[in-house]
Amino acid sequence: QTMESPKYELVIEAKDMGGLDVGLTGTATATILIDDKNDHPPEFTKKEFQATVKEGVTGVIVNLTVGDRDDPATGAWRAVYTIINGNPGQSFEIHTNPQTNEGMLSVVKPLDYEISAFHTLLIKVENEDPLIPDIAYGPSSTATVQITVEDVNEGPVFHPNPMTVTKQENIPVGSVVLTVNATDPDTLQHQTIRYSVYKDPAGWLEINPTNGTIGTTAILDRESPYVQNNIYTALFLAIDSGNPPATGTGTLHITLEDVNDNVPSLYPTLAKVCDDAKDLRVVVLGASDKDLHPNTDPFKFELSKQSGPEKLWRITKLNDTHAQVILLQNLKKANYNIPISVTDSGKPPLTNNTELKLQVCSCKKSKMDCSATDALHISMTLILLSLFSLFCKSFP
């Protein structure tokens, strides 16, 4: 039987002299602790519980209450809950609240209204400790939970996501990249979808708001700083007609194939040499190209035609990417521009005609003087000679 308290205290009195008033008396206290046995099964406070949850949401949706006449805070009182039916997808879990002994029923996998708007769970409750042999769990140790799922306006979903496509980098403006496909999970609401550009870092793309066709508004450039590892990434939105509208995001990866659209560049563009140098190898030139193979090296290095009766320099190839400029004689202190062309191996090849600025300097006591006074002097002399020639022709 259930007792009001598991602890009792008894005061015991003993008298001598046969209990006469003239006798002596002694007292003692006896404390009796009564161990509880699990002789009462837990029982739900009602046979059916109700819960409502929005689709796509997780967390506790209802607390199930039980009564148990055993000693609280013991294994004979503490409840253990189990879902025994209605949870094939493992969307629900139930745990015991240690303070109240209630069963906290939770959604752990978001529910989908379009798949099922109602769920019925059968839950049983037991104790941590086993019941004594003469006691059994009865019908009141099970209960039904009726769960209603509320519809929520969900954003459209792109298929697939991310989307991938491969295009040449120089396709004409207005070319179709691809047509996206987004569907609305709210199949019972019959909503329409419109599309828009969300993130287009280089501003190369547009999308038809009705049919989802993506086209180019500019030339795609694989060498752009907005392209990483040959891939350009843009984001698009699909917005439904719900109230309020819901939005889904789709990612597009465009792999750009290389086209020979960059001329090679030459470095360095400035070289210095002493006017009395014994080593007439002026500089090693290198070339680079933003394109990919086979639209880059091996490069072809050439000197443009040299004016005058004698040649002053030549260029020799060292390897696929480098060449060397050599003076054929010592030159007077001045600034010279050496015209050089470098051509890549693309089909068709591209050529960059550029100039190497060569400063011939006077070198005394390990100091290099590269001021262009001599060059200025030469220029003034040429101007005076030209004027004198014109004057002679005008007045024979």
TrEMBL record:
Which domain of life, per UniProt?
Eukaryota
| Keywords in alphabetical order | Calcium, Cell adhesion, Cell membrane, Cleavage on pair of basic residues, Glycoprotein, Membrane, Metal-binding, Repeat, Signal
Subcellular location per UniProt equals: Cell membrane
Chief site of localization: membrane
Entry's Gene Ontology molecular function annotations: beta-catenin binding; cadherin binding; calcium ion binding
Family annotation (Pfam families): Cadherin
Q: PROSITE patterns annotated for this entry? A: CADHERIN_1, CADHERIN_2
Q: Name one GO cellular component term.
A: adherens junction
Output the InterPro entries linked to this UniProt entry.
Answer: Cadherin (IPR039808), Cadherin-like_dom (IPR002126), Cadherin-like_sf (IPR015919), Cadherin_CS (IPR020894)
Q: Residue limits of the Cadherin domain?
A: 1-44, 45-158, 159-266, 265-376
Q: Which GO terms describe its biological process?
A: adherens junction organization; calcium-dependent cell-cell adhesion via plasma membrane cell adhesion molecules; cell migration; cell morphogenesis; cell-cell adhesion mediated by cadherin; cell-cell junction assembly; homophilic cell adhesion via plasma membrane adhesion molecules
- Do you know which PANTHER family this protein is assigned to? CADHERIN-13 (PTHR24027:SF80), CADHERIN-23 (PTHR24027)
Q: What is this protein called?
A: CAD13 protein
Question: What high-level taxonomic lineage is stated for the organism?
Answer: Eukaryota, Metazoa, Chordata, Craniata, Vertebrata
